[in-house]
Amino acid sequence: MKTISSLLRLSSALLAATLLSQCTTGKVTKPDVVVVSVKDQRMGLYEGGELKKKYKISTSKFGLGSAPGSYQTPLGRHQIVSKIGEGLPAGAVLKGRAWNGEVLAPNAPGRDPVVSRILWLSGREKTNANTQNRLIYIHGTPEERNLGRPASYGCIRMGMQDVIAAFGEIPVGTQVVITQGSLGRRSMTAEAD
After folding, report:
1. Domain that holds residue 46
2. pTM, to two decimals
3. Would residue 142 count as lying in a domain?
4. Would you say residue 22 lies in a domain?
5. What SS3 class is residue 162?
6. How many CB atoms within 10 Å of residue 109?
7. Spatial distance between the Cα atoms of 5 and 13, rounded to a whole number of angstroms
8. How many domains is the chain partitioned into structurally?
9. Which of 63, 73, 114, 117 makes the best surface tag, with the fewest CB within 10 Å?
């Protein structure tokens, strides 16, 4: 009798866990593609062809391009090849892709380092093949007041907490498309401008 009772409790627990796991939380579990819209200054995470989450970002204040030393944001298809900063506090300063022990608050005056997390991009087209060597990242910035308009030196900047959330949602290997177009509710084809 005790065994039957234990089996019933276990079965009930498994059923409850299965049902709860199917509930939608609005959280992206693993995006199929990330789209960076230069026009909107937003980054969208798409799962199953649907826009699941948007973040305010900043692209380059020097415009678009892939020339070395241009400080421009490269267009086209990219891929996340490395993630750096897991477990660090929000605002952790990453110098040379390593934490230097310093932590900044949002909008800290006179400072513009890479903070919190890095998602390192690699270009997947002939026109942007040098993206990784140019050290183009999706990363946190203390200059959160400038998000929503072009303000970076080529990278895609995000708020300190937003980049931590995105870091947890976007696995290495995810395709990133940087486009001049707008984000749509449905996934763009993986074609870039």
Report:
1. 28-179
2. 0.81
3. yes
4. no
5. helix
6. 7
7. 12
8. 1
9. 63
